Amino acid sequence: MGASTLPDALFGSVQYHPSISSCRHHDPIQVFAVKSLPTINRRTSGGKRKVLFADAWLCKPRHVIFSSMDDSAEALTDFLDDGDDNSLGSSKVIGVDDNELLATRKALSDARARNKAIEKERDQLLEKLAWSEAKQKEYLSTVMHDKDLAISELEAAEALFNNKLEESLEEKFSLESKLVLAKQDAVELAVQVEKLAEIAFQQATSHILEDAQLRVSAAEASAAEASFQIEEQIRSASEGAITAVLQQSKDAIEKALAVAESAGDHTTKAMAAFVDNMGSVDEIISVQSQNIKLSNTVNDLESQLLVYRNDIDRLKLELNQARKEAKAYELRANDVEKLFHEFQESSRKAALQQEEEIKSSLEKMRKDATEKRKAASKAFKLEIERMKAAIEAARETARSQDEAYMRRCEALQRSLRAAEAASKMWRQRAEMAEDMLLKKSSSEEGDEEAIYSVNGGRIDLLMDDDSQKWKLLTDGPRRPTPEWMARRIRSLRPRFPPRKTHVSEAMTAGYKTLDLPKPDEVWSIAQEKLKEGDVLVEHVIEKEVIEKKRKALERALQRKTVKWQRTPEETKLESGTGTGREIVFQGFNWESWRRQWYLELANKAADLSRSGITAVWFPPPTESVAPQGYMPSDLYNLNSAYGSVEELRSCIEEMHNQDLLALGDVVLNHRCAHKQSPNGVWNIFGGKLAWGPEAIVCDDPNFQGRGNPSSGDIFHAAPNIDHSQEFVRQDVKEWLNWLRNDIGFDGWRLDFVRGFSGGYVKEYIEASNPAFSIGEYWDSLAYEGGNLCYNQDAHRQRIVNWINATGGSSSAFDVTTKGILHSALHNQYWRLIDPQGKPTGVMGWWPSRAVTFLENHDTGSTQGHWPFPRDKLTQGYAYILTHPGTPVIFYDHFYDFGIRDIINELIEARTRAGIHCRSPLKIYHANNDGYVAQIGDTLAMKLGHLDWNPSKEVHLDGTWQKFVDKGPEYQIWLRQ
To answer: Could you tell me the superkingdom of the organism this chain comes from (predicted)?
Structure first.
């Protein structure tokens, strides 16, 4: 709007007064004040405006106020006049001609028109004043709002800083615990290496010594045997020859004597006869012939004696030769003995050298462990320094934000002061106008009515209450905030800068905040007290309820965050052990198929995660002839009695959202057919895996399979699959990978693994790469006379053999421990220790592959084939949840048996003590009265009535605090 041009005679002189505006761009406002001629006004009670003319016509005073605002396209001209278009009766004009009268009337009509314009401009001015005050209030509220926002965001920044500091402290504690665990692992590894080296040295030296001793013994035995045989031969030969010679000589001598006697008799007789009767010559000749024969016989005997002497000499030579050979054998034995001693010396030297090498390797390992510890400590210190730098940067950023906020506050205060100055200027203008209007008129006009009233320096037009102008003047303008102003207000709000995260850190780790209790709930539980006037029993019950609430709250507050994505350096997943700290929950029972189970199980995911569960065992997902799922038919059809495939995916996704592993129950041993063969046998499979009889083992007596013989036991209720067939194994691998990648399962629970070789299980696990795998190798324990045998080594050996067949790629249910606990917890705790001082189940031989449990859908639930003693459930869980191995919690026990709080308490004890599947175990007592053991370095537990606590053990140093006390059932201590 431009300025009105009026004659100087009517307006008088104009003065220029600059002022500061409260507008957004701080542009100056130009104000023109007008010096006026005297005005005659009179206030009357009627509130009407009248103008009186004196003897001479006077031009009514006019006041022009011209203002210009550069931030708008309009200019405001305010024209204030105290005249009125109503005249008083008739006017007396003296000495004025008609032209002057016409000019005066014209000027009067112009003045009236200008008066109307002035009224209009006045209204606009009042509106502007009201708008200015509203804007001032709006600016003030904006400043206060920004201040509140800044304070709240500063408080949020402080809380975030405190949270970061707490997280850093927690990370420090976790790193320290990891360092302690690493140190323990290094010490255990060193001890194991030393033991292995000692065993290897003993085995090697014992084997070599035994071999050498056996060789020496064999040589000595062969030499002794040879010498004995030779001596026996010589002795027998010499004795026989001498005996024969002597006998023959005796016989010959006897014969010779007999002949000589007979010859002497004959000679005597002959001489007698010759003397008597001079015998005949024939008899003499016969005697001579007999003498000749006798001499010949004697010669023969002499020759035989010479032969025998020669034989004796030969035998003597052979005897000497045998003695020489015996001496040679003795020399060889001496040489062998020398060689044996040399070998012993060399073995000893080699053992010493090996021992030195082992010591050097151990020293190197210690140095490496020390260096790693130093590196970890250095890294931790660097991380602390980095965190301190980040905290300092955050503080610097907060300081800069505070400075920026203060600068913005100062700017807003300057704007506020400018607005106040502008408001003050408008108030001054209004007061000036009011003063102009309230000046006294001449004494002749004393009965005239005034037209304005004053209210605190502000001109209020007296109008009706329903007038729009009155509403504007009272309430101010109600205009929506422009977009540019909203953007400016948003830009002025202080913001805490986001934490800068390194790319590698962002890729390797992530945090998901848990749903912690609300502050109101925390406060109500913290302030909850016992009611007055209760009886003793109700008082105790109420106290227990309050303590349970407080413990649950403490556990929830302690677990502030859960790391849902672990870095490879922190966790190595192995299919046989998982992370090593798994706690498995069997998420179904034998009757779960009767309800929409996947939907119910998904709603329990958050509760299970808060309780400390890490993995959930799902029921068999495949379409099955039996509703429980253990008679599968079409493996790719996952619409089962437990729910649809969409519900299954949603349930697994919810488990993953709560950082839980989903273990699928897969049946690989058998499969139900879809069709009958021409001879009426059910051995034709349908669905995507359309197998025939060639996929069934040939020794299954019921289904006429044409495959190879089974590599395990026969399951007689359904066709047993021949896993030696290449196409069968390929189809099973593809199916497992489909369950893993498309459906979302993380691992497997393998049903009836006795039916096929563990080598096939190893192949399937290597192909599907599960995070955790458990095999069900169910076998009968040893009983004698209806009582459980103490020695169950054969039973656990069969389970260990199956785990060995899988190459350790799968764990197995520790059925041995379950069976032993049935009897041991009835005051036969001596069953819990074997002669080597270890647990008597698979846990004692291979704890990292032992999955301990008390009950499942087969043994308990509505089947009840082998239920665990119900009054010993808490003791059983106290045993498996505090010992190495991987414990399993049954659904019915957790949700239906009323021992959920007890199980949660035991899980918390296991978590606080850092117990994992490989934790070392030392058993102190195991007798009829009770069982005592230390697991790891920070947990000790007792079962039964024994009077024992850690302070009674000399070597259990440190401060032990009782964490759980269930009296004669069980007690648990944690080292502080």
So the answer is: Eukaryota
Burial (Cβ within 10 Å: 0-12, 13-18, ≥19) of residue 41: buried
Residue 465's region, left for phi above 0, alpha for psi from -120 to 50, else beta, is: alpha
Confidence at residue 284, expressed as pLDDT on a 0 to 100 scale: 61
Range of weakest confidence among 500-504, 728-732, 775-779, 800-804? 500-504
Interhelix angle 98-276/483-492, nearest 10 degrees? 50
The pTM score is 0.48
411-447 burial, b at 16+ Cβ within 10 Å, e below that, comes to ebeebbebbeebbebbbebbbbbbebbeeebeeebee
Phi first, then psi: give them for residue 546, nearest 5 degrees. -65, -40
The angle at the Cα of 964, spanning 960 to 965, to the nearest 5 degrees, equals: 100
Residue 163's pLDDT is what?
77
The pLDDT, as a whole number, for residue 617 is: 97
Whole-number percent of the chain with pLDDT over 90: 38
d(CA 882, CA 175): 23
Using one digit for the tens of pLDDT, what is the confidence trace for 912-935?
A: 999 999 999 999 999 999 999 999
What pLDDT digit, counting tens, does each position of 101-142 carry? 788 888 888 888 888 888 888 888 888 888 878 877 887 888
Exposed, middle or buried by CB within 10 Å (0-12, 13-18, 19+), for 637?
middle
In this prediction, residue 226 carries a pLDDT of: 63
Angstrom distance (rounded) from CA 52 to CA 87:
7
The dihedral over CA atoms of 694, 695, 698, 700, expressed in degrees to the nearest 10, equals -140
Tokens of 593: 């198929």
For 211, the token pair is 């071999």
Buried b (16+ CB within 10 A) or exposed e, 893-932: bbeebebeebbbbbbbbbbebbbbbbbebebbbbeebbbb
CA distances from 784 to 372, 791, 793 (A): 54, 11, 15
Tell how strand 939-944 and strand 930-935 pair up.
antiparallel
Among left, alpha and beta (phi > 0; psi -120 to 50; other), residue 476 is left
Distance CA 418, CA 27 (A): 11
Segment 313-352, tens digit of pLDDT? 887 887 788 788 778 877 877 887 788 788 878 878 887 8
Partners of 585 in beta bridges: 616, 889
d(CA 330, CA 816): 57
pLDDT score at 567: 38
Using alpha carbons only, give the angle 597, 737, 627 rounded to the nearest 5 degrees.
30
Signed CA dihedral, 524, 529, 531, 535: sign only? positive
Element (H, E) at 642: none
CA–CA distance, 815 with 835 (Å, rounded to integer): 20
11 alpha carbon, distance to own chain's centre: 90
C-alpha 975/C-alpha 544 separation (Å) is: 25
Contacts of 877 (CB under 8 A, 6+ apart): 854, 887, 889, 893, 899, 902, 903, 906
911, HSE (Cβ side, Cα atoms, 13 Å) = 17
> Six-digit token pair at 976?
């502080």
Partnered with residue 51 across adjacent β-strands are 87
Both tokens assigned to 48: 């009407």
SS3 502: coil
3-state secondary structure of 414: helix
d(CA 58, CA 83): 12
**Is the pLDDT score of 89 beyond 90?**
no
Within 10 angstroms of residue 663's Cβ, the number of other Cβ atoms is 27
Angle at the Cα of 794 from the Cα atoms of 870 and 856, rounded to 5 degrees:
30
Active site residues: 751, 776
